[in-house]
Amino acid sequence: MQQELQLLVSRMRAAASSAEAVECLRESGEVIGMRLPCALNDVSGNHPVYDHEGRRIADLLGWPRWITDNWFDHAYVRQHPIYLRCRFENMPFGDVYADLWNGPGALSPAQQQMKKDVERLGVIAQITVPVHLALGRTACVLWSTCEPADIDGILASCGHHLLTLGHFFMAVMQPRHDQNARARERELSYLSDRQIECLYWLANGKTIQETAVILEISAHTVRQHLRVIVERLRAVNTVHAVALAAQFGIIGRLP
What we know:
Elements: H1 2-14, H2 18-32, E1 36-42, E2 47-48, H3 57-60, H4 65-73, H5 81-85, E3 93-96, H6 97-100, H7 109-121, E4 125-132, E5 138-145, H8 151-173, H9 179-189, H10 193-203, H11 208-215, H12 219-232, H13 238-248
Antiparallel strand pairs: 1-2, 1-5, 3-4, 4-5
Helix pairs in contact: 1-2, 1-8, 2-8, 10-11, 10-12, 10-13, 11-12
């Protein structure tokens, strides 16, 4: 199994098209005995992954259209325990669906529907690889199975191969870095330390007046900094600028 996955890692790394990457992902599912692989492009954004011809890869990999349409149309993935966990994990992890919904609280209506959908599909377990992308996005590559599988054994022997496959797969599927993105990068590099400090304290719930006191500058100066920031981030207003700064990682992790 390890040798087969190593060959697939090499093929995935060299893949020149989304079709090659999707085929490698499908074959990896066959190798580990989990024959329903898939991927999400942005967990919080509820975005499926499309190939370079605009086709949803879940369809190409054999997922029934009724379940993928249902989940993406209603943004179920934002409340799915596995996908929420991807926001906090870096390494591959496995879950048995029978144990997944046994939390301390009641399930939300969306989670109740997801539970029913999974039972209808017959999926009993899943291995998930979180993939943290640029601009604060969290993607994931996953392998599901409707048959008994040694999840712990697969992770112990092949988890590192699955981790690499997941990252290389998402690298192939990401859109090219366009000129607009490069222009924004240049603009972000011109933000001063003081401007970033203003954003940081606003993101932590401080008012403009409180931020001015903390930084020992005038409220007028804080407002001037914020006007420049809004312009450079191409934001609509200060609230939008703070959200973008958090997404881009400019202000770091909040306490």
